[in-house]
Amino acid sequence: MLIVMKADALDSDVERVAEKINNLGFQPHKIVGVNRTAVCITGNQEAVDPADFSNLPGVSEAISITKPYKLSSNKNQPQRTAVKVGETEIGGDNLTIIGGVCAVESREQVFAVAESVKRSGAKLFRGGAFKPRTSPYAFQGLGEEGLQILSEVRREFDLKIVTEAIDEKSVEMVENYADMIQIGTRNMQNFALLKRVGKSNLPVLLKRGMSATLEEFLLSAEYILSEGNEQVVLCERGIRTFANHARNTLDLSIIPAVKKVSHLPIIVDPSHGTGKSYMVGALARAGVAVGADGILIEIHPSPEDALSDGAQAILPEEYLELVGQLKAVYEVISAVGVS
Ligand code: PEP
Ligand code: MN
Fold first, then answer.
1. Ligand 1 atom nearest to CA at 309
2. What is the pTM assigned to this prediction?
3. Dihedral sign (CA 249, 251, 252, 255)
4. What number is the average pLDDT over the span 302-315?
Protein backbone atom coordinates (compact mmCIF):
# COMPACT_ATOMS: atom_id res chain seq x y z
CA MET A 1 0.00 0.00 0.00
CA LEU A 2 1.20 3.46 -0.89
CA ILE A 3 -0.36 6.49 0.78
CA VAL A 4 0.01 9.50 -1.52
CA MET A 5 -0.30 12.82 0.32
CA LYS A 6 -1.87 15.97 -1.13
CA ALA A 7 0.56 18.60 -2.41
CA ASP A 8 -0.42 20.92 0.48
CA ALA A 9 -0.35 18.23 3.19
CA LEU A 10 1.27 19.36 6.44
CA ASP A 11 4.23 17.59 8.05
CA SER A 12 1.87 16.70 10.89
CA ASP A 13 -0.47 14.97 8.38
CA VAL A 14 2.44 12.85 7.16
CA GLU A 15 3.41 12.06 10.77
CA ARG A 16 -0.15 11.00 11.51
CA VAL A 17 -0.13 8.56 8.58
CA ALA A 18 3.23 7.16 9.75
CA GLU A 19 1.87 6.79 13.28
CA LYS A 20 -1.20 4.95 12.04
CA ILE A 21 1.05 2.54 10.09
CA ASN A 22 3.17 1.97 13.20
CA ASN A 23 0.04 1.34 15.28
CA LEU A 24 -1.04 -1.33 12.80
CA GLY A 25 2.31 -3.03 13.48
CA PHE A 26 3.86 -2.20 10.07
CA GLN A 27 6.71 0.06 8.94
CA PRO A 28 6.22 3.45 7.24
CA HIS A 29 8.77 4.65 4.64
CA LYS A 30 8.52 8.27 3.63
CA ILE A 31 9.25 9.11 0.00
CA VAL A 32 9.65 12.85 -0.45
CA GLY A 33 9.02 13.91 -4.06
CA VAL A 34 9.36 17.30 -5.71
CA ASN A 35 5.66 18.09 -5.43
CA ARG A 36 4.32 15.71 -2.85
CA THR A 37 5.19 13.13 -0.27
CA ALA A 38 4.11 9.50 -0.23
CA VAL A 39 4.35 6.95 2.55
CA CYS A 40 4.92 3.31 1.67
CA ILE A 41 3.85 0.53 4.01
CA THR A 42 6.02 -2.55 4.44
CA GLY A 43 5.85 -5.47 6.85
CA ASN A 44 2.22 -6.40 6.15
CA GLN A 45 1.48 -9.97 5.07
CA GLU A 46 -2.12 -9.26 4.02
CA ALA A 47 -3.50 -6.32 2.04
CA VAL A 48 -4.11 -3.19 4.16
CA ASP A 49 -7.56 -1.61 3.95
CA PRO A 50 -7.28 1.72 2.01
CA ALA A 51 -10.22 3.06 4.05
CA ASP A 52 -7.91 3.13 7.08
CA PHE A 53 -6.05 5.98 5.41
CA SER A 54 -8.13 7.66 2.70
CA ASN A 55 -10.07 9.81 5.20
CA LEU A 56 -7.09 11.06 7.17
CA PRO A 57 -6.24 14.76 6.72
CA GLY A 58 -3.79 15.50 3.93
CA VAL A 59 -4.20 12.11 2.22
CA SER A 60 -4.86 12.22 -1.52
CA GLU A 61 -5.18 8.50 -2.22
CA ALA A 62 -4.24 5.05 -0.96
CA ILE A 63 -2.95 2.79 -3.72
CA SER A 64 -2.53 -0.92 -3.21
CA ILE A 65 0.66 -2.42 -4.61
CA THR A 66 0.42 -6.05 -5.54
CA LYS A 67 4.10 -6.57 -6.30
CA PRO A 68 6.05 -8.11 -3.39
CA TYR A 69 8.83 -5.57 -3.89
CA LYS A 70 7.64 -2.13 -2.93
CA LEU A 71 10.50 0.24 -2.27
CA SER A 72 12.23 -0.75 -5.49
CA SER A 73 9.01 -0.53 -7.50
CA ASN A 74 8.49 2.47 -9.76
CA LYS A 75 4.84 2.58 -8.66
CA ASN A 76 6.17 4.19 -5.51
CA GLN A 77 8.72 6.38 -7.13
CA PRO A 78 8.19 7.11 -10.82
CA GLN A 79 11.39 9.14 -11.27
CA ARG A 80 14.47 6.95 -11.78
CA THR A 81 16.97 6.94 -8.95
CA ALA A 82 20.49 8.25 -9.53
CA VAL A 83 22.95 6.82 -7.02
CA LYS A 84 25.87 9.07 -6.13
CA VAL A 85 29.36 7.69 -5.66
CA GLY A 86 31.45 10.76 -4.96
CA GLU A 87 30.57 13.17 -7.76
CA THR A 88 29.51 10.37 -10.12
CA GLU A 89 25.83 9.67 -10.58
CA ILE A 90 24.93 6.13 -11.63
CA GLY A 91 21.51 6.22 -13.25
CA GLY A 92 21.47 9.87 -14.25
CA ASP A 93 21.63 11.04 -17.85
CA ASN A 94 25.05 9.53 -18.41
CA LEU A 95 26.93 6.29 -18.85
CA THR A 96 29.09 5.21 -15.92
CA ILE A 97 32.18 3.15 -16.61
CA ILE A 98 33.60 1.13 -13.74
CA GLY A 99 36.99 -0.32 -14.62
CA GLY A 100 39.36 -2.32 -12.51
CA VAL A 101 40.84 -5.64 -11.54
CA CYS A 102 39.09 -8.82 -10.48
CA ALA A 103 41.32 -9.30 -7.44
CA VAL A 104 43.86 -6.95 -5.93
CA GLU A 105 47.09 -8.96 -6.32
CA SER A 106 49.82 -6.36 -5.87
CA ARG A 107 50.34 -2.60 -5.90
CA GLU A 108 52.07 -2.83 -9.32
CA GLN A 109 49.18 -4.75 -10.92
CA VAL A 110 46.53 -2.44 -9.46
CA PHE A 111 48.40 0.76 -10.29
CA ALA A 112 48.96 -0.33 -13.90
CA VAL A 113 45.21 -0.82 -14.32
CA ALA A 114 44.27 2.30 -12.34
CA GLU A 115 46.42 4.36 -14.68
CA SER A 116 44.36 3.25 -17.70
CA VAL A 117 41.07 3.64 -15.83
CA LYS A 118 42.04 7.22 -14.98
CA ARG A 119 43.16 7.87 -18.56
CA SER A 120 39.80 6.60 -19.90
CA GLY A 121 38.00 9.35 -17.99
CA ALA A 122 36.23 6.85 -15.70
CA LYS A 123 35.79 7.94 -12.11
CA LEU A 124 35.22 4.60 -10.42
CA PHE A 125 37.80 1.88 -9.79
CA ARG A 126 36.81 -1.60 -8.81
CA GLY A 127 38.93 -4.32 -7.25
CA GLY A 128 38.35 -7.21 -4.89
CA ALA A 129 40.22 -7.67 -1.62
CA PHE A 130 37.81 -10.35 -0.40
CA LYS A 131 37.18 -12.92 -3.12
CA PRO A 132 34.35 -15.42 -2.75
CA ARG A 133 35.91 -18.28 -4.74
CA THR A 134 34.21 -21.50 -5.80
CA SER A 135 37.20 -23.50 -4.54
CA PRO A 136 38.57 -23.04 -1.01
CA TYR A 137 42.04 -23.66 -2.48
CA ALA A 138 41.82 -20.73 -4.90
CA PHE A 139 43.24 -17.27 -4.10
CA GLN A 140 40.90 -15.70 -1.54
CA GLY A 141 42.12 -12.11 -1.83
CA LEU A 142 44.59 -10.00 0.15
CA GLY A 143 42.00 -8.86 2.70
CA GLU A 144 42.80 -5.63 4.51
CA GLU A 145 46.18 -5.33 2.77
CA GLY A 146 44.24 -5.24 -0.51
CA LEU A 147 41.96 -2.52 0.84
CA GLN A 148 45.02 -0.47 1.75
CA ILE A 149 46.29 -0.74 -1.83
CA LEU A 150 42.85 0.38 -3.05
CA SER A 151 42.93 3.37 -0.73
CA GLU A 152 46.28 4.32 -2.25
CA VAL A 153 44.62 4.20 -5.68
CA ARG A 154 41.90 6.46 -4.34
CA ARG A 155 44.50 8.96 -3.17
CA GLU A 156 46.99 8.77 -6.06
CA PHE A 157 44.50 8.70 -8.94
CA ASP A 158 41.53 10.47 -7.40
CA LEU A 159 39.28 7.52 -8.25
CA LYS A 160 36.39 6.29 -6.10
CA ILE A 161 36.67 2.70 -4.92
CA VAL A 162 34.13 -0.09 -5.39
CA THR A 163 34.97 -3.32 -3.57
CA GLU A 164 33.25 -6.46 -2.41
CA ALA A 165 32.25 -7.40 1.12
CA ILE A 166 31.54 -11.07 1.80
CA ASP A 167 30.40 -11.05 5.41
CA GLU A 168 29.48 -8.63 8.15
CA LYS A 169 33.07 -8.29 9.38
CA SER A 170 34.37 -7.40 5.95
CA VAL A 171 31.63 -4.76 5.53
CA GLU A 172 33.14 -2.89 8.46
CA MET A 173 36.59 -2.97 6.89
CA VAL A 174 35.26 -2.00 3.46
CA GLU A 175 33.45 0.95 5.02
CA ASN A 176 36.80 2.27 6.26
CA TYR A 177 38.46 2.22 2.85
CA ALA A 178 35.92 2.30 0.01
CA ASP A 179 33.19 4.42 -1.57
CA MET A 180 30.79 1.69 -2.69
CA ILE A 181 30.18 -1.83 -1.38
CA GLN A 182 29.79 -4.65 -3.89
CA ILE A 183 27.66 -7.67 -3.03
CA GLY A 184 28.58 -10.57 -5.30
CA THR A 185 26.38 -13.03 -7.10
CA ARG A 186 26.97 -15.75 -4.50
CA ASN A 187 25.78 -13.47 -1.72
CA MET A 188 22.71 -11.99 -3.41
CA GLN A 189 20.56 -13.94 -0.99
CA ASN A 190 22.80 -13.67 2.06
CA PHE A 191 20.07 -11.85 3.92
CA ALA A 192 22.11 -11.04 7.04
CA LEU A 193 24.71 -9.39 4.80
CA LEU A 194 22.04 -7.50 2.85
CA LYS A 195 20.55 -6.19 6.10
CA ARG A 196 23.98 -5.09 7.27
CA VAL A 197 24.76 -3.12 4.10
CA GLY A 198 21.23 -1.72 4.36
CA LYS A 199 22.46 0.06 7.49
CA SER A 200 25.60 1.37 5.80
CA ASN A 201 26.10 4.95 4.65
CA LEU A 202 27.83 3.72 1.50
CA PRO A 203 26.01 2.97 -1.77
CA VAL A 204 25.69 -0.71 -2.70
CA LEU A 205 26.36 -2.47 -6.00
CA LEU A 206 24.15 -5.57 -5.89
CA LYS A 207 25.02 -8.28 -8.40
CA ARG A 208 22.32 -10.60 -9.64
CA GLY A 209 22.42 -14.12 -8.23
CA MET A 210 23.49 -16.54 -10.95
CA SER A 211 20.06 -18.17 -10.98
CA ALA A 212 17.91 -15.35 -9.65
CA THR A 213 14.65 -14.29 -11.24
CA LEU A 214 13.86 -10.61 -11.64
CA GLU A 215 11.56 -10.79 -8.63
CA GLU A 216 14.21 -12.44 -6.43
CA PHE A 217 16.75 -9.85 -7.54
CA LEU A 218 14.47 -6.96 -6.64
CA LEU A 219 13.53 -8.57 -3.33
CA SER A 220 17.22 -8.71 -2.44
CA ALA A 221 17.45 -5.00 -3.25
CA GLU A 222 14.39 -4.60 -1.04
CA TYR A 223 16.32 -6.03 1.94
CA ILE A 224 18.82 -3.18 1.58
CA LEU A 225 16.26 -0.46 0.88
CA SER A 226 14.01 -1.48 3.76
CA GLU A 227 16.89 -1.03 6.22
CA GLY A 228 17.10 2.61 5.12
CA ASN A 229 19.88 2.54 2.50
CA GLU A 230 18.30 3.91 -0.66
CA GLN A 231 21.51 3.92 -2.70
CA VAL A 232 21.33 0.62 -4.54
CA VAL A 233 22.65 -0.09 -8.04
CA LEU A 234 21.74 -3.42 -9.65
CA CYS A 235 24.21 -5.34 -11.81
CA GLU A 236 23.50 -8.01 -14.41
CA ARG A 237 26.50 -10.40 -14.49
CA GLY A 238 25.20 -13.42 -16.36
CA ILE A 239 23.16 -16.42 -15.31
CA ARG A 240 23.59 -20.20 -15.49
CA THR A 241 22.03 -21.80 -18.55
CA PHE A 242 22.65 -24.92 -20.64
CA ALA A 243 24.86 -22.87 -22.99
CA ASN A 244 28.52 -23.71 -22.53
CA HIS A 245 30.20 -21.53 -25.14
CA ALA A 246 30.50 -18.83 -22.47
CA ARG A 247 31.05 -18.94 -18.69
CA ASN A 248 27.58 -17.47 -18.09
CA THR A 249 24.73 -16.25 -20.28
CA LEU A 250 24.53 -12.47 -20.09
CA ASP A 251 20.82 -11.77 -19.77
CA LEU A 252 20.51 -8.35 -21.37
CA SER A 253 16.72 -8.64 -21.42
CA ILE A 254 16.74 -7.88 -17.72
CA ILE A 255 17.75 -4.26 -18.42
CA PRO A 256 14.43 -3.20 -20.03
CA ALA A 257 12.59 -5.54 -17.63
CA VAL A 258 14.07 -3.75 -14.60
CA LYS A 259 13.42 -0.35 -16.13
CA LYS A 260 9.77 -1.27 -16.66
CA VAL A 261 9.10 -2.06 -13.01
CA SER A 262 11.80 -0.36 -10.93
CA HIS A 263 13.37 3.05 -10.44
CA LEU A 264 16.76 1.56 -9.50
CA PRO A 265 19.74 1.98 -11.83
CA ILE A 266 21.17 -1.14 -13.46
CA ILE A 267 24.61 -1.75 -14.95
CA VAL A 268 26.05 -4.62 -16.99
CA ASP A 269 29.14 -6.71 -16.24
CA PRO A 270 30.19 -8.34 -19.54
CA SER A 271 33.36 -9.75 -17.94
CA HIS A 272 31.64 -12.28 -15.66
CA GLY A 273 28.72 -12.34 -18.08
CA THR A 274 30.86 -14.06 -20.71
CA GLY A 275 34.02 -15.22 -18.94
CA LYS A 276 35.93 -14.82 -22.20
CA SER A 277 37.99 -11.76 -22.98
CA TYR A 278 37.20 -11.87 -26.73
CA MET A 279 33.47 -11.51 -26.00
CA VAL A 280 33.73 -8.66 -23.50
CA GLY A 281 33.76 -5.80 -26.04
CA ALA A 282 30.79 -7.07 -28.03
CA LEU A 283 28.63 -7.60 -24.95
CA ALA A 284 29.71 -4.31 -23.37
CA ARG A 285 28.61 -2.44 -26.51
CA ALA A 286 25.35 -4.39 -26.48
CA GLY A 287 24.84 -3.52 -22.81
CA VAL A 288 25.06 0.18 -23.60
CA ALA A 289 22.73 -0.23 -26.59
CA VAL A 290 20.12 -1.99 -24.48
CA GLY A 291 20.01 0.93 -22.03
CA ALA A 292 22.31 0.00 -19.14
CA ASP A 293 23.27 2.86 -16.83
CA GLY A 294 26.84 1.66 -16.73
CA ILE A 295 29.36 -1.03 -17.63
CA LEU A 296 31.77 -2.84 -15.30
CA ILE A 297 34.94 -4.22 -16.85
CA GLU A 298 37.79 -6.36 -15.50
CA ILE A 299 41.29 -5.51 -16.74
CA HIS A 300 44.69 -7.13 -16.10
CA PRO A 301 48.15 -6.07 -17.32
CA SER A 302 49.06 -9.74 -17.96
CA PRO A 303 45.89 -11.86 -17.91
CA GLU A 304 47.83 -15.14 -18.22
CA ASP A 305 49.33 -14.49 -14.77
CA ALA A 306 46.08 -13.40 -13.10
CA LEU A 307 45.23 -15.06 -9.78
CA SER A 308 41.51 -14.94 -10.62
CA ASP A 309 39.37 -14.54 -13.72
CA GLY A 310 42.31 -14.19 -16.12
CA ALA A 311 40.32 -15.67 -19.02
CA GLN A 312 37.93 -12.74 -19.04
CA ALA A 313 40.37 -9.91 -18.32
CA ILE A 314 41.14 -7.49 -21.13
CA LEU A 315 44.40 -5.57 -21.46
CA PRO A 316 44.63 -1.90 -20.41
CA GLU A 317 45.02 -0.81 -24.06
CA GLU A 318 41.99 -2.90 -25.11
CA TYR A 319 40.01 -1.31 -22.29
CA LEU A 320 40.94 2.20 -23.45
CA GLU A 321 39.82 1.44 -26.99
CA LEU A 322 36.60 -0.14 -25.72
CA VAL A 323 35.67 2.87 -23.58
CA GLY A 324 35.89 5.06 -26.70
CA GLN A 325 33.49 2.68 -28.46
CA LEU A 326 31.09 2.61 -25.51
CA LYS A 327 30.94 6.40 -25.43
CA ALA A 328 30.19 6.41 -29.17
CA VAL A 329 27.39 3.85 -28.79
CA TYR A 330 25.96 5.82 -25.87
CA GLU A 331 25.94 9.01 -27.94
CA VAL A 332 23.96 7.31 -30.71
CA ILE A 333 21.53 5.81 -28.21
CA SER A 334 21.01 9.20 -26.54
CA ALA A 335 20.66 11.00 -29.89
CA VAL A 336 17.83 8.73 -30.99
CA GLY A 337 16.24 9.13 -27.59
CA VAL A 338 15.97 5.50 -26.54
CA SER A 339 18.41 5.24 -23.64
C1 PEP B 1 33.72 -10.08 -9.17
O2 PEP B 1 33.11 -9.04 -9.42
O3 PEP B 1 34.94 -10.22 -9.28
C4 PEP B 1 32.90 -11.25 -8.84
C5 PEP B 1 33.36 -12.23 -8.09
O6 PEP B 1 31.70 -11.17 -9.41
P7 PEP B 1 30.43 -12.14 -9.31
O8 PEP B 1 29.98 -12.04 -7.89
O9 PEP B 1 29.46 -11.55 -10.30
O10 PEP B 1 30.88 -13.52 -9.69
MN1 MN C 1 36.08 -11.39 -11.20
1. 3
2. 0.90
3. negative
4. 98
